Backbone:
């Protein structure tokens, strides 16, 4: 790669990673104007914009996702060459960003991530705690770990385990439900609640299963929770009540445009293997 183009690409990658010109400038140790000049130079040389300029910052355009991932691979390759020249061998250098639900981020994912990194010198995992499903549209994740009946057409991945849901409450809880709001309104248990629970049967709602667990633990009402959360809480009892229980596939998935990246493919396969070791707890066994 021509040195000028490589230099421009470094700046483009920094903006993609940080989401703003000012944050990229701080990361690179330069000023705002320098970053902007290199981004404009790269876009001019390659026939069009890479970013959508929004009030919230710079978001990578969806059709430029592969450009950014190639930039990460190029940066990793350059670092790898330097290390190999110094006598070390690090085949999977670089950052992989993982988006997962708060349930997974507070239960199994810290251990899973630690064990993957322990076996992968030079690999850095960035964990994003999010119940949203649009991380890929905004280019804020490389891999998603989340329960879903099926993947969207632009995603590809593997089922690592199955996540069970059940009804939980304290012994003295009122006969009222805790509703699923926000992003959780798209979760599979929310479909059952919409069909079987009237609005006046709910005491409160939340957009986080971790928050719902704690509300149920305080005796506010009955909550539908992932069994890996509910079973571990000594305040709660799993009930065979109105909710029949259900199990949802737990996917490790990437956007189709990113799935062929060696680094992402390697991390995804290791995530699947490590998550499978927790299948009993995830499935409520």
Residues:
């Amino acid at each position: 790669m021509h040195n000028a183009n490589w230099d421009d690409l470094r700046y483009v990658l920094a903006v993609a990673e940080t989401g703003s010109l000012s944050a990229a400038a701080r990361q690179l140790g330069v000023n705002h104007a320098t970053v902007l000049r290199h981004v404009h130079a790269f876009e001019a040389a390659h026939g069009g914009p890479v970013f959508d300029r929004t009030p919230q910052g710079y978001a990578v355009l969806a059709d430029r996702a592969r450009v950014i991932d190639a930039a990460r691979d190029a940066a990793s390759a350059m670092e790898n060459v330097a290390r190999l020249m110094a006598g070390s061998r690090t085949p999977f250098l670089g950052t992989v960003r993982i988006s997962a639900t708060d349930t997974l981020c507070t239960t199994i994912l810290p251990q899973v991530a630690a064990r993957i990194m322990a076996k992968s010198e030079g690999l850095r995992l960035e964990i994003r705690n999010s119940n949203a499903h649009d991380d890929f549209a905004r280019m804020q994740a490389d891999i998603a770990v989340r329960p879903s009946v099926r993947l969207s057409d632009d995603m590809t991945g593997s089922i690592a385990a199955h996540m069970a849901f059940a009804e939980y409450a304290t012994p003295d809880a009122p006969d009222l439900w805790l509703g699923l709001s926000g992003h959780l309104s798209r979760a599979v248990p929310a479909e059952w609640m919409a069909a079987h629970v009237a609005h006046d049967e709910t005491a409160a709602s939340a957009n986080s299963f971790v928050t719902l667990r704690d509300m149920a633990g305080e005796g506010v009402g009955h909550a539908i929770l992932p069994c890996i959360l509910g079973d571990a809480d000594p305040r709660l009892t799993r009930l065979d009540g109105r909710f029949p229980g259900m199990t949802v596939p737990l996917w490790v998935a990437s956007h189709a445009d990113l799935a062929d990246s060696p680094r992402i493919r390697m991390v995804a396969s290791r995530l699947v293997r490590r998550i499978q070791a927790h299948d009993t707890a995830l499935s409520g066994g």
